[in-house]
Design goal:
The structure holds two protein chains of two kinds. Chain A is of the alpha+beta class. Chain A has two domains: 43 residues; 100 residues, no CATH class. Helix content of chain A is 61%, strand content 12%. Chain A contains six helices and three strands; from the N terminus they run αααβαββαα. In chain A, strands 1-3-2 form a three-stranded antiparallel beta sheet, covered by helices on one side. Chain A is elongated and about 65 Å long. The mean pLDDT of chain A is 92. Chain B has one domain. Chain B is elongated and about 55 Å long. The chains are: A alpha+beta, B mainly alpha. Chains A and B meet through helix 1, helix 3, strand 1, helix 4 and strand 2 of A and helix 1, helix 2, helix 3 and strand 1 of B. Strand 1 of chain A pairs parallel with strand 1 of chain B, so a sheet runs across the interface.
Chain lengths: 157, 112
């Protein structure tokens, strides 16, 4: 129930910001109706559990996101150097890493963080084993160092 | 103040444009589809984010800036899924990545 409420609040804020109509009762009413319809549909589809609407992670995500943004910035610089050929030939590598998160949600967040970082793409997620394609040696070593794995585990168990 | 904002916005837009250019160069230069996806990754992280950041600085504290932030959020949430779907589709279609394979050639994978 609390998740339905938080989804409704989130959708209402989104509707207000996107439409910019604050004063027209008819439009506000229609917006409210569409918010309620969306929440009901999400509930009937089973999307209001801890995977579909993981709002409980928000606090810890505020710690994780800045770190992820920093990593994405550094990785962009590495990939740019590799594309421009400033660090010798590229070394495309496929390798496996273990995801130590207990929950499916944690593993998916880890796999998506890897894909979002340029230079590494998750090819496959099976059980706790991730198959990753990396463009450079540095990207392989960065991931095998396991810091992202640890940080995602702290974020989402 | 307006000058500082303009300068910051120009720096962000120019770096973003450079990232997009390098990413596009990567799409042309890199050897196979898996490697090329890394070039595309530069375009939709650094390229998109920095250009929209520059536009946000131009927009100031308005609803337009909010919409630009939402664009970044939605792309950041959806692009890993599409990249992963693309990579997986290539694997299932029988493409093999160039270069070294350090994984134990996952037994069940080729038979699926």
């Amino acid at each position: 129930m609390l998740r339905a409420l938080s989804l409704a609040i989130g959708l209402a804020v989104l509707w207000l910001l996107l439409s910019g109509y604050w004063h027209e009762p008819l439009l506000l009413g229609l917006g409210l109706a569409s918010v309620l319809l969306s929440v009901v549909v999400a509930g009937r589809m089973g999307g209001l559990d801890d995977e579909g609407h993981p709002v409980h992670l928000l606090g810890r995500a505020l710690i994780y996101w800045p770190w992820l943004i920093k990593e994405i910035g550094l990785a962009n610089w590495d990939v740019a150097k590799a594309i421009l050929g400033w660090q010798g030939p590229i070394e495309p590598t496929v390798f496996a890493v273990r995801a130590s998160q207990a929950s499916d949600l944690g593993r998916v967040i880890y796999a998506n963080s890897i894909t979002l970082t340029p230079g590494t793409v998750t090819l496959e997620l099976a059980g706790d084993r991730l198959l990753v394609h990396a463009l450079t040696r540095g990207a392989v070593e960065g991931l095998q160092g396991g810091e992202m794995d640890r940080r995602v585990r702290r974020l989402a168990g | 103040m307006a000058l500082v904002l303009d300068l910051l916005s120009w720096v962000a837009i120019l770096i973003g444009a450079a990232a997009m250019l390098i990413g596009a160069l990567g799409l042309l230069r890199l050897p196979d589809v898996f490697a090329r996806m890394h070039g595309a990754g530069m375009i939709d992280t650094a390229g998109l984010t920095l250009i929209l950041l520059g536009l946000m600085l131009q927009a100031g504290l308005t609803l337009i800036a909010v919409k630009l932030i939402l664009i970044v959020l939605f792309v950041v949430y959806t692009s890993p899924m599409t990249s992963h779907a693309l990579a997986r589709a290539c694997l299932l279609a029988g493409l093999r990545p160039l270069g070294r394979v350090e994984a134990d050639e996952g037994g069940g994978r080729s038979s699926r």
